[in-house]
Amino acid sequence: MNALILDGSPANDATGGRVAAILAPLLAAKGYKTEHVVLRDKTLGHCRGCFQCWLKTPGVCILDDDNRELSRKFIQSDLTIFLTPVMYGAYSPELKRMLDHLIANISPFFTTIDGETHHRMRYERYPDVMVTGWSDRPDQTQEALFNHLAWRNTINFNGEKRSWGIVDRHAGDVALKSQVEDLVRKLDSSSAHQGEELPRIAAETAAAPQKAVLLVGSPRMAKSSSASLGGYLLDQLAARGVATETIQIYHAMHDEPKRQAMLDAIDRSDLTLLAFPLYIDSLPAPVLSLMRDIEARRAGKAMRGAFAAIANCGFIESSQNESALASCATFAKAAGFRWMGSITIGGGEGLVHGRQLAELGGPAIPYKKALDRVAEAFAAGKPVPEEARQQLAKPFIPGWIYRFVGSRNWKKQARQNGVFEKIDARPYQRVAG
Ligand SMILES: Cc1cc2nc3c(=O)[nH]c(=O)nc-3n(C[C@H](O)[C@H](O)[C@H](O)COP(=O)(O)O)c2cc1C
């Protein structure tokens, strides 16, 4: 049997190495041959959100870098272990950068699990998954959030056995070993499959903003659903006298002067709005990276500014965004912002089709009205009103219609790309023997 350790430790953190060294003999005793991959040493571009891995080269990411070999290793392993510091109840960008590529390994088509939309499996079998986090100090909110995210991820990764938990990075070798042993043991216990509660993080009031910045956290940038939804809200703030600015995170992240200008713009703003797509039940890797930079920059400074987030996801149920939005709240608190609450929208693409929300009628109308009410509240320094949040969270069409139309669209695009026959391809299928 093969075990793959995907180690998402940042450069200055030796914990992944310590945990991997404990795991190797434990797993060997259970009959596994273990490979430890330190992700920060690999060449991994960011997922471009293009879905070509479903519709053009089915099962293979169009980026020809180490993500392909790691995807193959993931599928061909019997057990994959994620190692990561806990960041805002989520994973490190070093780990997330690889996880975002794993959508190549699932099918674009839908199924339902416990009444909720998920993707069908591309392969017959997937590895068991163990998610191991560590933190500097005990933090109940982050722990609950991390466990919730790991639980959600393990549903989407389809592994039969799953376990997750947090170890104490400052523990001595004996204590750390016993914590890691517990997690390995949990793989064989069915209680680890049960759901986890998401912590509730209350929104606050702030001073009425004079300046607001919209950060768009999608690789599709101006053409994204995030830009459409966030842009509409920003325009409503501008209409109420707030000075506004929009920054594409993916445009600014590779260029140092642009990245500095983005951080300066956040410093200048009274309200920072983050609009992002849900990636693997969480935030896209570059957004997590930016959050870490913002927190470091604001460390030790007096609390200033407010922060709010807008998530949209592919599945019709907006509830799938809640874990990522709770991470945004945790980040806001850690970085000294006032948390103004969040907006969650399901089936983002189906709702906006990459167009400006302001141009759309029909099902988009109640969403625009609810965003108007959010803008009114923000302009007065008040958090997202609960009834507007609930309106935005409603599905715009019944789930079964959304899934039917969505599947038809995937097939149409695959046909146009000449790969209709290959859409269920299994390029990394393990060869018996
Ligand atoms: C790498 C990747 C991971 C995704 N993971 C999820 C997910 O876990 N749940 C979900 O509902 N949608 C998921 N989606 C779908 C996006 O959230 C959805 O397409 C969204 O509308 C894109 O918004 P954007 O146009 O702002 O990028 C994922 C998409 C990509 C590319």
Describe the model.
This protein has 433 residues and is of the alpha/beta class. The chain has two domains: 2-193, Flavodoxin domain (Rossmann fold, 3-Layer(aba) Sandwich); 211-393, Rossmann fold (3-Layer(aba) Sandwich), CATH 3.40.50.360. 40% of the residues lie in helices and 19% in strands. It is built from 15 helices and twelve strands. It has helices at 15-29, 52-55, 66-76, 93-99, 140-157, 173-186, 225-239, 249-252, 256-268, 285-298, 322-334, 348-352, 365-379, 386-393, 399-416, and strands spanning 2-7, 33-38, 79-85, 106-113, 116-121, 128-135, 162-168, 211-216, 243-248, 271-277, 306-312, 338-345. Strands 2-1-3-6-7 form a five-stranded parallel sheet, sandwiched between helices. 48% of the residues are buried. The mean pLDDT is 95. The chain binds flavin mononucleotide. Flavin mononucleotide (FMN) binds at residues 47, 49, 100, 103, 218, 220, 224-226, 277-281, 312-315, 320, 348-349.
Q: What is bound: which ligands?
A: flavin mononucleotide
Estimated structural class? alpha/beta
Q: How many H/I helices?
A: 15
- How large is the radius of gyration? 21 Å
Q: Count all strands and give the number.
A: 12
Low-pLDDT ranges: none
Mean pLDDT: 95
- Biggest sheet strand order reads 2-1-3-6-7
In CATH, the architecture of the largest domain is 3-Layer(aba) Sandwich
Strand percentage lies at: 15-25%
**Oligomer state of the chains in this structure:** single chain
